[in-house]
Every structure is written in C-alpha cells, then in structure tokens.
C-alpha cells in the first residue's frame, strides 16, 4: 500500500559499511550497482585506486546522500574507522599485501577471485586470516551463490552413482557483454609510472614463483598466458566443480588447443569412479557458453550459466530423468531472477552481520591453485 511503513525486519537490518580497493570494470559494472540496489544493507563509504580519474568516475556512480571518500592510498582505506568490509577488487598480484593490511586493521575482507596467483601469496592470506581469528576472509566465487547452483549441488547429491561429468566455459569478449550492461563503465590511464612499474615487477615475480618455483614448470609466453587465463576464467569453473563433485585425484591429460590467437584448452580430470572432461576458451564470438553437466544411470543434471555482466540473466538447472514406467522427463528450473552477485552480497551480509561462516574462504580457494598446478604439470608439450 502507498505510505506503508517499512517492516520491522527491514528497519532492524544493520548497514554494513564497505570500502572498495580497485575501481576497474568489475567494480563499476557489478559491485557498485549491486551495493546501490542493496542500500538497505550496505553503504559504500570509501574508494581507493591508483587512478584519480577512476576514483572520480566511480564516486559519481555511488548512490546515497554522502559521496564516499576517495584515496590513492589503499592502506588509508583499510584503516578507516567507518569501514566494516574491505572489498579487494584490484589486480590479483596485490591481493595478499592489501588483505594483510586490512586484516591487521581488524576488517572483514572480501577478495575478488582469483585469491592470488601463487601458493605463497595464498598462504600469506590464510595465515593472516588465522591470526585475525579466522573466518575474516570471503573469496568472491559468485557462481557458487547462484540459487540454481545450490539446487544442482542438492540434485547431484541424489544421484546414486555418477558415471561422467563435463565442465564447459567458452565465451566471447567480455567487452561485448559489458558494453551492453547499461552500466557505462570507463577505463583510464592516469597511472603513475612508479605504480605501473611496481605492478609489472610483482606480476613477473608471481609468474616465476607460481610456475618455476612452485610447480617446476618452465616460464614461457605460452605457460604465462595459460596460467593467467586459467587462474581468472578457469577458477570459476574449477571452484564450482569442486563443490559439486569434490577434488579430482589428478589430470589424465591436458591439451592446450592454441598457442597463438584465441586461447583454448581441454583436460580430463580423474575421480575415483568417474572422469570429468573440462573445456574452456576465449574467442571473438559474442556468446557465453558455460555449463556443468553430471550424468548418472537414471538422471542427468545440468547447470546453465550466463554472463554475470548483464544483470538479471537467470542461472538455470536442467534435470533429465528416466522414470520407473520407462518414460522420459526433462525440466528446466529457474528458482529466481536474482543474479549471483546479488545473492553473493546477501551472503556477505550474513557473514559480517550475523557471523555465518563463508563456504568460500581462503583455504577453499587454495584448492583451485592446486588443480591449476595439476593442469600445468600435465601439459605434454
């Protein structure tokens, strides 16, 4: 009814104050709009970036009576008294150092995936989280908070014996989807030379650490590219695969299908009683083809995922059954139009406000780097 007062539950919700480090595309396209929509639960109070222009642009996108404070100094944001959660959406090479400062300041820390490029940095975050009392780090695997994903986990649990599964993630340029998202993001180049050089040195050190020192894999342009693509795009798939099916025992084979141009790769993961085929790649065709499909004797369950950059596109579950009378049934279930980022931020609120332990903590995220290591070691070139 018009003039209706807010419910008592709505009035009693705690407003979580968020400081965001990194004002690039993911912040502009998803996090700021989502937090604006969830203004009953969140207020963005601080923004930090190495670009003054990006700060100014992102500040203008934040809803509310008071604009967030801006700073070029991430440490200043981490130690600000009116910040409850630090969202780290900067380059992944900087995640560990920024998380360390935020945890030492007593903040909850939301890290956009991938958590890091190396086991060294990941373990730094894990140890800092333990020193902070544990359960203070949330890693942003938004696909695992989609309603359909949670439905798939339950439905696969009802399969007596899994016979086979396949994981697929082949997408076109994100710029196409972002350009049609209605968020009108911008990129900027007003970076200080010392910031650019420092990031280049840290990124090169990460590749050396991850490949040569931790895996014994030679650093080449091809392995460098594979590690970066797999850690960013691939971590979505591998993390979701783990929750549905558990950790694989190993990799039977891994085949990069292109060394120049569009990167593609395929692999076979070995589980105790079944195998999982994994195929992924990025090309110039404007479509988003991502799914996880699990086959049993009498049931097949498929998770269908669309681009997260266009708000409101549903994630669905498709179930195919062999019924006792011999007939065939196929059903597509869309439980909600709420997008995974919105559902993820609702879960973050439960974590900060009510102490709910996140399923996507740093120890969980470390397992993706372990699987990436399996893939790189299985590369037969």
Describe the protein in words.
This protein has 381 residues and is α/β, with parallel strands linked by helices. The protein has two domains: 8-140, Rossmann fold, CATH 3.40.50.720; 143-378, Dihydrodipicolinate Reductase, domain 2 (2-Layer Sandwich). Helices cover 40% and strands 24% of the residues. The chain contains twelve helices and 14 strands. It has helices at 8-12, 25-37, 52-61, 74-78, 95-104, 119-131, 147-157, 174-179, 193-215, 221-245, 340-354, 362-378, and strands spanning 16-21, 42-48, 69-71, 85-88, 108-112, 137-140, 162-171, 250-256, 264-270, 275-282, 288-296, 299-305, 316-322, 328-333. Strands 8-9-10-7-11-12-13-14 form an eight-stranded mixed β-sheet, covered by helices on one side. The termini are far apart. Residues 1-12 have low confidence and may be disordered.
* Count of individual beta strands: 14
Radius of gyration: 21 Å
Number of helices: 12
Largest sheet: 8 strands, mixed
Binned strand content: 15-25%
- The total domain count is 2
Low-pLDDT residue spans: 1-12
Give the C-level CATH assignment of the largest domain.
Alpha Beta
**Proper CATH architecture of the largest domain:** 2-Layer Sandwich
How far from one another are the termini? 67 Å
Structural class determined from secondary elements: alpha/beta
What topology, given as strand order, has the largest sheet?
8-9-10-7-11-12-13-14
